[in-house]
Amino acid sequence: MLKRRDNVLKRRDKRNKRNRRNKRHRSLRARALLALAVIAGSLAIALTTPVRLGLDLRGGTQITLETRSTPTTDADAAATARTVEVLRGRIDALGVAEPTLVRSGDHRILVELPGVHDPKKAADVLGRTAQLTVHAVLGPAGTADGATSPPADPAKERVLPDDSGQPLRLRAADLTGRDVEGAEARFDQQGGAGWHVTVDFSKTGQDRWRQVTARAACHPAGDPQRRVAIVLDNKIISSPQVDPSVPCGTGIPGGTTQITGSFDDTEARELALLISGGALPVPVETVEQRTIGATLGDAAIEAAARAAVIGTALTALFIIAVYRLLGLLATAALACYGLISYAALAALGATLTLPGLAGFVLAIGMAVDANVLVFERAREEYAARGRPSPRSALTAGFRGALSAIADSNITTLIAAGLMFAFASGPVRGFGITLAIGVLASMVSALVISRVLAEYAAGRPAVRRRPRVTGIASTGWVRDRLLRREPFLMRRPRRWLAASAVLAVVAASGVLVRGLDFGIEFTGGRLIEYATNTPVDPDRARTALTDAGFPRAVVQSSGETGLTVRAENLTNADAATVTETIGALGGETKKVRDELIGPSMGDELRRNALIALSLALGAQLLYLAVRFRWFFGTAAVVALAHDVVILIGAFAWLGKPIDGVFLAALLTVIGYSVNDSVVLFDRVRELLGRDRATPLPRLTNQAILQTLPRTVNTGMGAAFILTALAVLADDTLADFALALLIGLAVGTCSSVFTAAALTIELGPHRKPFGGAAVTTGPSGRPG
Questions:
Q1: Contact 77, 121 (CB under 8 A)
Q2: Biased-composition ranges for Basic and acidic residues (predicted)?
C-alpha cells in the first residue's frame, strides 16, 4: 500500500515538473517571438525612415518675418514678442521639432526650421494672421445688373463673397477668435460630410453663438438671412444655414459648430491649428527665406561621434568583465535597445540634435541599470540557496527586481508625459526622447535580455560551469560590504547636516558669482556678413574662439553669407568680429546688425517650470501611494538638493547656463529619482519581511544590498560621460561635466540625503505596524 502511494506521488511529482517545464518553455517561446517581432519591425523602420537632424547637425530653413502695424495696433517690440509665442504654438502643431524663434530688432522674427520638406507651405501657415470672426448675414449685396453694392454703413457691416462667389452683406462681428476655446479636424464617415473642423466656443462665446443663431432662425428656410458666415482673414470659409428644426428665438445651444467644405485631411488640420492657435497680434509678412548651415561644424560632430563610440565600447567591456556571459548577452540586448530607440525616433518624426544624440548615447549607459538590477538580485538569490542553479537564480532575480524596475520607470514616464503635455520647445522634445528611452529600455531588459539570459542559463554546458554566467559569485563590492558591514545610518542627522552645508556652499555660488545665462535665455546680437569668397564655418568658429569669442554661434547663410550670434557684444567686440571674418573671406560687407531676443522666451520658460513642478508633484504622489508619504518627500528633497548643487557648481565654475545645460539638468533629475526609488523599493521589501527591526537598521541593510547595483550602474554611465568630457568639443564637454557632477551627487544623495531623511521622517517606534520598538543612539533595539 505504501509502495503504491509512493509511486503515485512520484508520478505526480514528475507530472508537475513536466507541466512547469512546458509552461516555462511556452513562456520563453512567447517572449522570443515578441522580441523577434520588435527587432524586425525596428530594423525595417531604421532602414527605410531617416531621422530628422536638428539645426546644429544639419542646418535647415530660415524664414524672416516682419510685423506690420494696423490701424488699431502698433507693431512694436512687445507686439512682436507676443507674435513669437503664437508662432511657436503653430510650429509645434505643424510637427516641427526643435525649431528656433527669436525676435530680431523691434519688427523682425527669425524662424529656423530643421528638416522641413515644404518650407514655402510652412511660411504660408506662419504668415497667416488667422483672424476668425462670426457674422450674421444681412442679405445679398448684388444689384439688379449684377454689380456689388457697397455697404450702407462700413462701421456696422461689410461685404464679402461666399464660397460660390455671391457677395453677401455681413453685420459687424458677433464672435471673434477670443471666443473660441478649441478646434479639431474630424472625419465624418457615417454622415458623408468628409473632413470638417469642429469649433468649440468658450462660455461667453456659447451665449453669443446662441444669440446669433436665434436671430437667424427667425427667417424662412432658403432666405440668405438664415445663414451665419464664418470669416477667416477677410474670407468667408463657411456660411451654413441654421437648420430648419431650430425655432426662432431659441438658437443652437452647446457652443459647438462645424466648418464644412471640400477639405482634405491636410487642409482641415491646418485650419484647425490656425483657429486653435489664435490670431497673430499683428500681421506678418515673409521678407526673406534661405537655407542655413549647421551651427556645429563637422569637426565637432566627428569628435562627438568618436567619443560616443569609445564610451559605449568601454561600458560594454565593463559589463562583460563584471557579469561575464550574462554581461555579453546584456550588451547584445543594449544594442537592440539602441536600434529600437532609433526606430521610434524615426517613426515619430522626432528631431535629433547634438545634445539629444549625446543623451541618446548616455541612455544606453543608463539602460544598463535594469540589467544590473536583475543580475545583482540573481547573485543574491544564488548565494542564499542551498542547491542553486543559474537558471533558477536568474528567474528569481527577474521576479525580485521587477517592482524596482517598474516603479523607477513609471516615475520617469510620469515626468516625461507631463513635460510633453505642458511644456514646449526643447523641454517638450526632451520629454519625447525620455519616454522613448524608458519604454525601449524596458523592452530590452525584460524581454530581449531575459530571453537570451534564460536560454543561455538553461544550456547543459552552462549548468556544469555556473561561474561563467557571472552570477555564481557575489562580486568584490558585495564581498567587501558583507565582510565589514558598516552601519552608515548610525547618525542620519549628521549626513543631513553635511548635505545641507554642501547645498548652501553651492547655492552661495549663485549669489557670489551669479549665473552666466547663454544666448538662448538672454538674447544677444546677430551680425550677418556677405563675403567675397565663401568662408568655412569651422574656420570662422576657430578664428573667433582665438579672438576671444568661444561661445559665438556661426552659421553659413545662403551661398556666401555668414551669420554670427553672441551675447553681450559691444561695438568694439562687433568690430573685432568683423575684422576676424574679413581676414578669412576677403572683402566683407555687413548685411545685418541687430539685437535679437532669447529663443527661450518668457512663456516657454514659464511652461517648462510648470511642467517640472507638476512632474515633481506627480512623482511625489505616486511614491506616496506606492510606498509611504515620507519616502516621496525624501526623494523630492534629495532631487532638489541635487539640482541646487549642480546649478551652484556651474556658477562657481563660470560655465554657461544654456539649452545644453537644461538638457543635462533634466537628465540628472530623472537619474536622481531612479536611484532613490531603487533604494526605497528594497527598504519596503525588508519592512514587509521584518517588522521588528528598527528602521535605521533596515535602511542601512537596504543600502548595503543595493550599493553594488549603484556602483556598477554609475560606472557604466561614467565611462561614456568621461569620453564625452575628454574627447568632445566644448559644448558637449560642458554637457558631460554637468552629468558627471549630477551622477556623483545623485548617487550620494540617494544614500546620505534621501535615506537619512526617510529615517528622520519615518516611524521610530512602530515600523509599519509592528510592535513598539525603542531605538537607542546606535539604532539598535533598546
A1: no
A2: 1-10
Name the DSSP class of 68.
-
Residue 532 main-chain phi, psi, to 5 deg? -65, -40
Provide CB contacts within 8 A for 441, sequence distance 6+: 337, 363, 366, 367, 369, 370, 409
What is the total residue count of the chain?
A: 782
Question: pLDDT averaged over the chain?
Answer: 80
* Residue 460, C-beta contacts closer than 8 angstroms, at least 6 positions apart: none
pTM for the structure as a whole: 0.74
pLDDT digits (tens, 9 = 90+) for 379-411: 888 888 766 788 888 888 888 888 888 888 888
Q: How far apart are CA 35 and CA 449, in angstroms?
A: 9
Cα–Cα separations (whole angstroms), residue 460 to 14, 19, 20, 466: 20, 20, 18, 10
Residue ranges with strand state E in 572-683: 588-596, 656-657
36, 339 contact by CB (below 8 A): no
Residue type, 514: G
Residue 769 DSSP label: G
Q: Render the burial of 718-748: b for 16+ CB within 10 Å, e for the rest.
A: bbbbbbbbebbbebbbbbbbbbbbbbebbbb
Q: Nearest-CA neighbor of 390 among 452, 324, 467?
A: 467
Rounded Cα–Cα distance for residues 737 and 88 (Å) = 31
Quick one: residue 139, left, alpha or beta (phi over 0 = left, psi -120 to 50 = alpha)? Answer: left
SS (H, E, C) 284-332: EEEEEEEEECCCCCHHHHHHHHHHHHHHHHHHHHHHHHHHHHHHHHHHH
Virtual torsion, Cα 186, 430, 610, 672, nearest 10 deg: 140
Nearest Cα neighbor of 610 from 599, 602, 620, 621 is 602
What phi and psi values does residue 599 have, to the nearest 5 degrees? Answer: -75, -25
Closest CA to 104 of 483, 594, 558: 594
Residue 144's pLDDT is 45
Per the CB < 8 A criterion, the answer to whether 678 and 408 are in contact is yes
In sequence order, which residues have a C-beta less than 8 Å from that of residue 449 and are 6 or more positions away? 329, 330, 333, 370, 371, 374
CB 746 within 8 A of CB 714: no
Distance CA 368, CA 113 (A): 35
- C-alpha to C-alpha distance for 389 and 392, rounded to whole angstroms: 5
